[in-house]
Amino acid sequence: MFDEIKFNRVELLPKYVFAEVNELKMKERHNGHDVIDFSMGNPDGDTPNHIREKLVESAKKTKTHGYSTSKGIPKLLKAIADWYERRYDVVLDPQTQCVATMGSKEGYAHLAYAITNPGDVTVVPDPTYPIHNYAFILAGGEVKNFGIVFNEDYEIDEDRFFNDLQEIFDNAEEGKRPKHVLVNFPHNPSTATVTPEFYVRLVNMAKKERFYVISDIAYGDITFDGYKTPSILAAPGALDVAVESFTLSKSYNMAGWRVGFFVGNTRLIGALQKIKSWLDYGMFTPIQVAATVALNGDQKCVQDITDKYDHRQDVLLDAFANAGWKIKRNKASMFVWAKLPKCVEHLGSLEFSKKLLVEAGVAVAPGIGFGPTGENYVRIALIENDKRIRQAARNIKTFLKQYENGEK
C-alpha cells in the first residue's frame, strides 16, 4: 500500500555492478569454495603499531569520549597543513583551508551537497570511482563524462585530455557550463598518472573558463620506480580554484578507521566545514589523535606498505604472464588495470568477472562498474600475498585454456 511513496534520490542510483560480484563471492564462500579476492581495495596489512597504540592511549582517557569537532581537532588540522608543507611546499591555514572527513566517500558526499545547486554540471573523466559521479548526482547536479586516454605506461595523454575537456565547455548549452571538474590521479581504477605540468594547465583553464577543480590523490603515496605524485595545490594560483582530498586508508592501512581530509580553496573548504557542522560531530576524538600521529610520525611505515605493493605487482605480472595474461606494469596505486585477454574479450568485463569467480575461484572488479570506458578491463587489487597470487595465476591459466582451445 506504500508503493506509491517514492524515494527519488535513492532511485537515482543504478544497481551497483560490484554487488553482483560480491553476491557471487559470498555464495561461493558459503558453499565452502575458496575465493582469492582481488576485487576490493581493502588493505590486508596491519595498521602500524605506533598508530594503534596512540588510539588505545587516547581512548583510555575519560575526556575523549564526548562530542568532537566536526571539522577536525586543531592538532589534526595542523598536522594536515604541516604534511602538505613538507610534501609539496604548499602553505595552508589549518583553520580555514583544511577539514578532516570520515574517509573520502563522506567528504565527497558532503562537499557535493554543500556546493551543488540543482542542475549544476560537474565534469568527471570516465572511468571513475563511482562516488565521484554519484555524490553530485545525489546532490541534485548533473555529470558530464569523457573517456580518459593513456599510453602503455599508464600516463595520461594530456593534450587529448584538455582537448576533450575544452570541447565540453565549447559545446555547453546556455546555463549549463560546468561548475566543477573532478580529477583523480593516480587514477582509480586505471592507475594512470599525470605530471606537475598537467595541473598548471588545469588551473589556468579553470581560471579562463571559471570552474572549480576537485582533485583526489587517495593513492598519492603509493608510487613506484621513482615516480612522485604531484599535487594540484603546488601549481601557481591553485588555491584560487581548487581543493584536494586525501585519505589515510591506503598509506597507513587505516581503511576501517574512516579518516581523510580536504584542503585548499577557502570558499569550498568553508562550505564543507559549514555543512558538516550541521550534519555531524566529527570523528571519534581518539581516531583523530591517532591520525595526527600517523601524519606527524615516522613515514617509514608508508614506504614499507608501498614496497609491499610494488613487490606484489611484480609477482602478479610475472605469474599472470605465465598464465597467458600479459599486463603492463604501472607506476602508482595499489591496483593493476588489466585489459581482458583476447580469448575472453567477447564476454565483456562483468560476465568475465563472474565466470572467473565461479570457475577459477578468483574475484576481480569488472571495469564496466567504473563507467563505459572501463568495459574491456578489470581492476585487480594487490591485497593477496605471493602464495595466493601464484595460486590465482594457476587457476586463471586453466580457465583461459578452455577459451584458447575453443572449449568454451
Characterization of the model:
This protein has 408 residues and is α/β, with parallel strands linked by helices. The protein folds into two domains: 8-47 and 301-404, Aspartate Aminotransferase, domain 1 (Alpha-Beta Complex), CATH 3.90.1150; 49-296, Type I PLP-dependent aspartate aminotransferase-like (Major domain) (Aspartate Aminotransferase, domain 2, 3-Layer(aba) Sandwich), CATH 3.40.640.10. 44% of the residues lie in helices and 12% in strands. The protein is built from 14 helices and twelve strands. Strands 2-8-7-6-5-3-4 form a seven-stranded mixed sheet, with helices on both faces. A three-stranded antiparallel sheet has the order 9-12-11. It is globular. The model has no long low-confidence stretch (mean pLDDT 94).
Short structural description:
With 408 residues, the protein is an alpha/beta fold. The protein contains 14 helices and twelve strands. α2 (17-30) runs parallel beside α13.
* Strand segment tally: 12
State the CATH topology of the largest domain.
Answer: Aspartate Aminotransferase, domain 2
Order of helices and strands: HHEHHEHEHEHEHEEHEHHHEHEEEH
The average pLDDT value, as a whole number, equals 94
Instruction: Tell me the CATH superfamily of the largest domain.
Output: Type I PLP-dependent aspartate aminotransferase-like (Major domain)
By DSSP (H or I, 4+ residues per run), the number of helices equals 14
Helix content: 40-55%
Low-pLDDT runs: none
What is the overall silhouette?
Answer: globular
CATH architecture of the largest domain: 3-Layer(aba) Sandwich
Biggest β-sheet description: 7 strands, mixed
**What count of structural domains?**
2
Structural class category: alpha/beta
User: Over all CA atoms, what is the radius of gyration?
Assistant: 22 Å
Strand content: 5-15%
Q: Between the first and last Cα atoms, what is the distance in angstroms? A: 48 Å
